[in-house]
Amino acid sequence: MNQPPATLAFDIATPENKKTWDQAALELSEAGWHLQTTADGIVVSLHDTEDPRVQVRLHEEKGSGAPAANGFAVLRAMGAGALETALCDSIPRGITVDRVVVGMNWTLVRAGSFCGIARSPARGTAGARTIRPREGFVGKELADLAAYLRSTDPLARSLGLAAVNAFWNRPDADYQEQVPVGGFSGLQPPGDGVIIIGGFRGAARRLPKARVVEREPKPGDIPATDAKTAINQAKILAVTAQTLMNGSLDPLLLGSENVPRRMLIGPSAPLCPLLLNHGLQEVSAVVIQDAGAAEAFICETGTMIMHDHIARSAYLRR
Fold first, then answer.
1. Which 3 state secondary structure label does DSSP give 39?
2. What is the 8-class DSSP label of residue 276?
3. How many CA atoms lie within 13 A of 226 on its CB side?
4. d(Cα 45, Cα 6) in Å, to the nearest integer?
5. Which 3 state secondary structure label does DSSP give 86?
6. Could you report the per-residue pLDDT of 132-190, keeping only the tens digit for each?
7. Do residues 266 and 277 make contact, with C-beta atoms less than 8 angstroms apart?
8. Could you give the C-alpha distances from 83 to 87, 247, 279, in angstroms and in order?
9. Domains along the chain?
10. d(Cα 292, Cα 149) in Å, to the nearest integer?
11. Is 225 exposed, middle or buried (0-12, 13-18, 19+ CB in 10 A)?
């Protein structure tokens, strides 16, 4: 028999706390978590599962002194968010940030010889605002910026992920397995049993039998509402690294435990071996080779950053 979900109390007595929860609820929902209001509170779960490993019941307290609701605290209470926590904890202290750029398409963090990027939030979303502290980011430690990944806010996660990538996606790193071909290039046409989470239109053309799951589907795509059925039938799951930026990777991995091979693909992916301990068999990412050129490219609203002199592909594989 399943045990009841864990209970997390939070305070909504003030308009500010209520606003904090409403924003957290929106972010959790957009990332793929299921929220249901019951007589006993709000249940947050993976889709509509009854598995208590991925469930938490939120009990609203008024004037109790309980903390304001925090989206990432909700995830940790239900046993999720371990991947983000591991990535944040992997960044050593003592590395000082000297440049942060949040562009229309990419976010960049530089700290001495370290340089990392991640996708910026989609245009027209809540990402178009500021999270800058009064004193700015320059001079802070890279580990402190990486901690922004412990959030359900896409803009904060983008900044945190770029900081994580600055440390792990290094041109001179010796931890990377030397795999000559990876990502979609390592998959053989026609792509039977391949389910792609995210656009990747070029890969879909090379793998004509692969199916694409999209929130805004085009003809032939699988709508996100039908993703669960498609993933259950997959032999290979190729997931865009933007899911790590927007918070939807965790529910995807929890909901695809029976898929034999799961890959994280894209410039936002960290080349951190810890990812291979969290349900992934391969990571396909990029390494920035010219930080100055990357920064100029981002400031000039560049999109396709995979230019030879700016970045190159790199892979991790179990």
1. coil
2. G
3. 13
4. 11
5. helix
6. 999 999 999 999 999 999 999 999 999 999 999 999 999 888 755 556 678 999 999 99
7. no
8. 6, 11, 10
9. 6-80 (no CATH), 183-288+311-317 (3.40.50.11590)
10. 24
11. exposed
